[in-house]
From TrEMBL:
NCBIfam families: GTPase_EngA, PRK03003.1, small_GTP
CDD domains for this protein: EngA1, EngA2
Family statement drawn from the similarity comment of this UniProt entry: Belongs to the TRAFAC class TrmE-Era-EngA-EngB-Septin-like GTPase superfamily. EngA (Der) GTPase family.
Annotated residues for binding of GTP 1: 30-37, 77-81, 139-142
Domain EngA-type G: from-to ranges: 24-187, 199-372
Organism this protein belongs to: Kitasatospora kazusensis
Listed name of the protein: GTPase Der
Residue sites binding GTP 2 per the record: 205-212, 252-256, 317-320
Pfam families named among the record's database cross-references: KH_dom-like, MMR_HSR1
Oligomer and partners: Associates with the 50S ribosomal subunit.
Amino acid sequence: MALAAEEGFDPEDLEGLEGQGPLPVLAVVGRPNVGKSTLVNRIIGRREAVVEDKPGVTRDRVTYEATWNGRRFKLVDTGGWEIDVLGLDAAVAAQAEVGIDNSDAVLFVVDANVGATDTDEALIKIIRRAGKPVVLCANKVDGPSAEADAAMLWSLGLGEPHAVSALHGRGSGDLLDAVMAALPDAPPQTFGVVEGGPRRVALIGRPNVGKSSLLNKVAGENRVVVNELAGTTRDPVDELIQLGGKTWKFIDTAGIRRRVHLTSGADFYASLRTSSALDKAEVAVILVDSSEPLAEQDTRIISMAVESGRAVVIAYNKWDQMDEERRYYLEREIEQDLVQVQWAPRVNVSALTGRHMEKLVPAIETALAGWETRISTARLNAFLGELVASHPHPVRGGKQPRILFGTQAGIRPPRFVLFASGFLEAGYRRYVERRLREEFGFVGTPISISVRVRE
Ligand code: GDP
Ligand code: GDP
């Protein structure tokens, strides 16, 4: 199911259109069975989200796009996670926490017939701590006789309880008006990355590694004539290049072509260009001169790319100059100095002869796929359960911290949040990352793992 919400767009493609930009995100939070899915279906006017009359049905957070009074927003159903793994409260709290972190406002759903439970109170604490605007929905108010139940929820201290019947639609318009008032117009953009259009590639590397030569080689006859592609930008610093049947946007190629004749300040200029190109790109192709020993500047540029959170491909250029001896030393250098990017796809190319140019696109595509990989919460927790059982954290001071639960909080790059019963040592966190990569791939992408400790 391709949802419009996932497709994204490039604001530059939509010049002249009003009101475009990243959409504000509403997290729908509540304990299982209060009617979140029913409400989400009601709001998006669809029937396809799973609704089952049984608490704790496994499903993941799902994002939908919705419109109310002409305003578009994203709706994240924080869903019901596999709660047998942990106690119910911990799982519900964990899910709410991640959902809320990634949102601009919270729609908190309570079953008015049941009233507020301890789990609801626990959720309220989390919502308060996050400090995001919140709208309170008193659900299952199917008729006037249940209005009094809704009014009881004033005591939660979250403002007006909006009485709603998600099942029948009663009160949902007023609820959406309140939601609209709570949502900001344009949320802050993550990473400064604009979505949509041709994939954006940054060609980076220290001076003289062959960026300009490589660009000329791949561009060759493949350069896309301005205007040929409807709706793409005419930014003269970027170039649209047709490769492997697709159009790619090579970022800041003007900076590559502009030969810098400065005797001093060239390094500074190069690093400025690198960081600005990374800002705008989705994937970095890092060029290294394989005919020379790896320089400190090479590893610095690689670190910049990894820290920027972009997908990464490493191209070892000038391979036409390779011989047995150099190859031996290069492999040692890579083992020693590039352990941090062992996961990056590698291509051995020559911009001079054109060697292996055809391998560049598959490598870029692999890296982008890794960058956008999403692991379902159920799969992730099955994996974590096995990991914890087969390789528990070492006992420290009589205690043994355990990973209780995990979720993938985002992609581009994949970000994970682990909930643990105690502090996880760096070595153990690295082990988790290594095992995650073995299990799920994540080729060509940095991944981030953050740990939250639950007492
Ligand atoms: P979730 O676990 O919070 O997503 O809850 P669901 O949307 O799966 O709903 C749980 C149950 O409550 C289902 O049987 C729904 O049909 C029922 N339900 C949801 N909203 C309402 C409502 O407004 N009134 C009534 N009577 N039942 C509702
Ligand atoms: P940039 O500063 O990274 O843009 O590097 P250039 O593209 O200007 O290349 C620097 C020098 O390396 C030039 O003399 C190129 O001809 C040479 N060069 C680039 N690619 C290759 C290659 O694959 N093999 C060889 N032998 N020389 C190359």
